[in-house]
Amino acid sequence: MLAHRIIWSLIFMLIILTWKHQLRVGLSDLKRIFSSWKPAAGMILASFFISLNWFVFIWAVSNDRVIEASLGYYINPLLNVILSFLFLKERFTRYQVYAIIFAFIGVTIMTSYYGVVPWVAFLLAFSFGVYGLMKKLVQVGAIVGLTIETLLMTPFALLFVIWLYRQPGYVQAFSMGDLTTSGLLIGAGAVTAVPLLLFAIGARRISLSLIGFLQYIGPTIMLFLGIFLYNEPFSKVQFISFIFIWIGLFIFTASKTKLFERLFRKTKQQNA
Predict the structure, then answer these.
(1) If DSSP codes are grouped into helix, strand and coil, which group holds residue 65?
(2) Among residues 164, 234, 223, 203, which one has the least CA distance to residue 2?
(3) Strands (DSSP E) found in 99-225
(4) What is the pLDDT of residue 173?
(5) What is the structure's pLDDT at 123?
(6) Of 73, 81, 71, which Cα lies nearest the Cα of 113?
(7) What DSSP line would sit under 192-229, residue for residue?
(8) What is the distance between the terminal CA atoms of the chain, rounded to a whole angstrom?
């Protein structure tokens, strides 16, 4: 599934580049990036960590670990805060620090609830956090960047698919005899590429820390799917953690609005 996801994502991105008449731009950016080791290393790391993220997520969904996967994407924004502080020198207001504390409490409660290290959650958080940082550091357009990332991983994906289909007794999932599955595998390319394309555009326009907190929307949807669609258990402890995280999200998001800034300025002047 991961191999097909990589291959069809590349094909989808090449179609977009052709449609937008940006193939020459893509080739030019590819040469520019790999003419220096720093951007080349950043692009290779981005390719590796997004592939790792896809693999762990596919495994989690296939093994009834959707709620734990959602925990990973709840942890991810906190990791983004740490990465932005360490590498991008971003700073936060007092109210944004309060928001981080609330979110940290919620994630800590949820993590402690498992009783063991939730490796799926931490791998998802770490891999997507590093991927977001690389997207922030490497200077390349969103469409071209995602095309290069999938291009770097496609040779490995193709070799794996060829090896797998040559194994005796292997039931081929991609064949004319199973058009539904084949269509889903092809569609995974578009479903994968579009959100990452939008993420890449957003990563270059707003701060990494704000990106992190906005990303709570995704795991919340995932959490609901785990509870109501896959019928995974959801305890009171997890619900309390969920409330703490959303309080933190509300405070952080509100602190970014102009209305909050005016109220904060007015309160500060009154106290002075």
Answers:
(1) coil
(2) 164
(3) none
(4) 62
(5) 93
(6) 71
(7) HHHHHHHHHHHHTTS-HHHHHHHTTHHHHHHHHIIIII
(8) 60
